[in-house]
Amino acid sequence: MHGGRDDFRALGVHAPPIDLSSTYPVADLAADMASLDAMVAGGEPLGSSVYSRLHNPTVARAEQAIAALEGADATVAFASGMAAYTAAILVARQRGGHVVVVRPLYGSADHLLACGLLGVEVTFTTPDGIRAAMRADTSLVLIETPANPTLDLVDIADTVRQAGDVPVMVDATFSTPVLSRPLAHGATLVLHSATKALAGHGDVLAGVVSSNDAGWIAGLRQVRLLTGSVLHPMAAFLLHRGLQTLPIRVRSAQRSAQRIAERLQSHPAVARVHFPGLPGGDPRGVLGREMDGPGSTVAFELHSTDAAAPAQLMAALTLITPAVSLGSTDTLIQHPASLTHRVVDARVREEHGIVPQLLRVSIGLEHEDDIWADLSSALDTVRP
């Protein structure tokens, strides 16, 4: 609520100001040179921001607020979640040519790592296979928990133990800092697609990485500076504003998600429900230990083997919006095999439970009875 607002009283404002400047006047050339040198090295400006690609006060406010939520020394904001992911891999590449990645994870992240574009060698593994996958040149271990789209929970502390001295980055987009704070369990980096619940209203693209490691923070800032993957100040303003209601939104949607998941279990058109809050949904005992709740996303598999059944169900919805993304104020549904994970090899999708019958629902803030009425009515139209 109050992160990034420490100077408001001195400024005489109540709402965060928006600094849309692309450049800043030079008042003292020597001072600006020193400030530029500090930012090029990955540090904070020494006075003048010089140029908005290097530093922007509105972006810095959002970063400060998210760092406070994460219990981090600093947060670095990027133009999207994938820009944040790319920056982290590029910093890791400078430290070693190999990374270990636990599947499943977000489809575009999987594709980025598998395609070889960033010049790192990747070993994909399971949560129990991390130690065996480590090499002398491993520079980073990547996990996503809850995993996209199956909502599998990965034990962060166990991952850190298996990784040894190698840093661990956790994509905690699905849980948000309201439910999970990976740095407290030994992770070096925590990443979010802030497009999702952090901003929370479906009108922002943003990504953030937080850490207590000064070297990683400096490296991330340097990559952002060099590549220009900066967050626009208007998006930063909206992200900062969204954070004010984050706990209320997450907890409200989570309550509804629990009840929707329970109702889905009893619908005859549903073969299986994926949700950490259901019996058997948390085999590693993560809830209550590393995560304060199951979250607000539910996935389920249809009984029907008809390839057209997922599209048929989505077409029958009138309240729920068929669309990718999650964590917004309204409920969204999407078909991972066709959309978010279409870029992942079909064999890999099947191996990790991303089957053609799977649908993912991001529960919003509508009344749960309205959500269920729409969903159950659409499920009734699905042919066996």
Structural features, described:
With 384 residues, the chain is an alpha/beta fold. It folds into two domains: 17-243, Aspartate Aminotransferase, domain 2 (3-Layer(aba) Sandwich); 246-380, Aspartate Aminotransferase, domain 1 (Alpha-Beta Complex). Helix content is 37%, strand content 15%. It has 14 helices and twelve strands. The strands form two sheets. A seven-stranded mixed beta sheet has the order 1-7-6-5-4-2-3, sandwiched between helices. Strands 8-9-12-11-10 form a five-stranded mixed beta sheet, covered by helices on one side. Helix 3 packs parallel to helix 10 and helix 4 (81-95) packs across helix 9. The longest helix is centred in the middle third of the chain and has 20 residues, at 246-265. The termini are far apart.
Detail the topology: elements first, then pairings.
Layout: H1 8-11, H2 29-40, H3 57-70, E1 74-78, H4 81-95, E2 98-102, H5 107-114, E3 121-125, H6 130-133, E4 138-144, H7 156-163, E5 168-171, H8 176-179, E6 189-193, E7 207-211, H9 214-227, H10 233-243, H11 246-265, E8 270-274, E9 297-302, H12 309-316, E10 321-322, E11 332-334, H13 346-351, E12 358-362, H14 368-380
Parallel strand pairs: 2-3, 2-4, 4-5, 5-6, 10-11
Antiparallel strand pairs: 1-7, 6-7, 8-9, 9-12, 11-12
Helix pairs in contact: 3-10, 4-9, 11-14, 12-14
